[in-house]
């Protein structure tokens, strides 16, 4: 066991790292109707759990922020752990966060990735996808992502995707313009330089010339038709469509129970990847 793996085990024992199966819940102080729940299940791989979540409500002066994120690592649990501790801090430290939120999120993603690359000796060679959602005063939702973790919102019982799956096959031209290539060998999944199955990610220093860490950012007004939000890693989305995920939990009132049900349904459908999901109920 390496020193990094020993440190990870120590963090798990004191509650600072993801575990094989972790669950939790919380609620807004601003609105009694807004609640959150999350559930994580380790996949069948032999390496430690590489999914990390943020799910909390935070008071900032007279405002309340719901901070939600899924960080899905590859060849690394250190980089998603670093993102969990630092990405939202960097976003909120942007001077124009309150006035130009979308621009602030984009800049914070870039600066965070630069720091990760600078710390590659300590954080290792792997990387992480990310999907983040910021709920501002229970009124506005700002979603950003790199990679294939996904955000889906349910309005009037209908699923709407609020993120972009950054697949190598869809971004082949950009990858090739940077000097890289997309190959289905080995295996049958398109990969950047035959190695990575996503076109955008944090970290991955050895592939960075051919990858992007630029997020797609979307804003959504939360109105009376908005029922709930799902954030989940690809351990869910490999086996379920957006509408199937929404239909699976639309009748479950408790957010944590909904997140657990979503994970269990993915397991029933034989998902073998790490599974992490957050459900935010808005009614």
Sequence-ordered SSE layout with sheet pairings:
Elements lengths: L2 H11 L7 E7 L7 E7 L9 E10 L2 E12 L3 H15 L8 H18 L1 H4 L3 E10 L3 E7 L3 E6 L2 E4 L10 H6 L4 E2 L7 E2 L9 E2 L12 E6 L4 E7 L1 H4 L4 H8 L5 H14 L6 E7 L2
Helix pairs in contact: 2-3
Number of H/I helices:
8
Beta fraction: 25-35%
Q: Please give the largest β-sheet.
A: 6 strands, antiparallel
| Parts with pLDDT < 50 across at least 5 consecutive residues | 4-20
Cα gyration radius (Å): 18 Å
Widest beta sheet: strand line-up: 1-2-14-13-7-8
Separation of the first and last Cα atoms: 46 Å
- Shape descriptor reads globular
Features:
283 residues, six-stranded antiparallel β-sheet, 8 helices
Give your account of this protein's structure.
The protein is globular and about 50 Å long. The strands form three sheets. Strands 1-2-14-13-7-8 form a six-stranded antiparallel beta sheet. Strands 3, 4, 5, 6, 11 and 12 form a six-stranded antiparallel beta sheet that branches. The model is unreliable at 4-20 (pLDDT under 50). The termini are far apart. A hairpin with a 3-residue loop joins strand 5 and strand 6. The chain has helices spanning 3-13, 78-92, 101-118, 120-123, 172-177, 234-237, 242-249, 255-268; strands spanning 21-27, 35-41, 51-60, 63-74, 127-136, 140-146, 150-155, 158-161, 182-183, 191-192, 202-203, 216-221, 226-232, 275-281. The protein is built from eight helices and 14 strands. It is α+β, with helices and mostly antiparallel strands and 283 residues long.
């Amino acid at each position: 066991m390496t020193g990094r793996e020993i440190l990870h085990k120590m963090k798990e024992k004191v509650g600072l790292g993801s575990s094989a199966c972790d669950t939790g819940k919380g609620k807004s102080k601003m609105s009694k109707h807004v609640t959150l729940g999350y559930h994580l299940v380790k996949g069948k791989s032999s390496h430690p759990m590489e999914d990390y979540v943020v799910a909390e409500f935070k008071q900032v002066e007279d405002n309340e922020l719901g901070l939600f994120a899924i960080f899905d690592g590859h060849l690394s649990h250190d980089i998603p752990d670093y993102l969990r501790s630092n990405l939202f801090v960097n976003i909120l430290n942007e001077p124009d966060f309150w006035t130009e939120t979308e621009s602030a999120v984009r800049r914070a993603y870039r600066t965070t990735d630069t720091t990760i690359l600078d710390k590659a000796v300590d954080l290792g060679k792997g990387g992480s996808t990310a999907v983040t959602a910021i709920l501002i005063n229970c009124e506005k939702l700002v979603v950003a992502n790199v990679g294939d973790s996904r955000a889906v919102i349910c309005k009037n019982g209908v699923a709407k995707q609020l993120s972009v799956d950054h697949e190598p096959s869809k971004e082949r031209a950009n990858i090739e313009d940077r000097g890289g290539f997309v190959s289905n060998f080995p295996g049958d999944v398109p990969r950047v330089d035959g190695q990575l199955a996503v076109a955008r990610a944090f970290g991955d220093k050895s592939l960075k010339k051919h990858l992007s860490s630029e997020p797609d950012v979307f804003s959504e007004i939360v109105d009376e038709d908005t029922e709930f939000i799902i954030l989940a890693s690809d351990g869910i989305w490999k086996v379920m469509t957006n509408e199937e995920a929404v239909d699976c939990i639309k009748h479950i009132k408790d957010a944590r129970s909904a997140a657990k049900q979503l994970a269990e349904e993915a397991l029933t459908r034989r998902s073998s990847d790490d599974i992490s999901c957050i459900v935010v109920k808005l009614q």
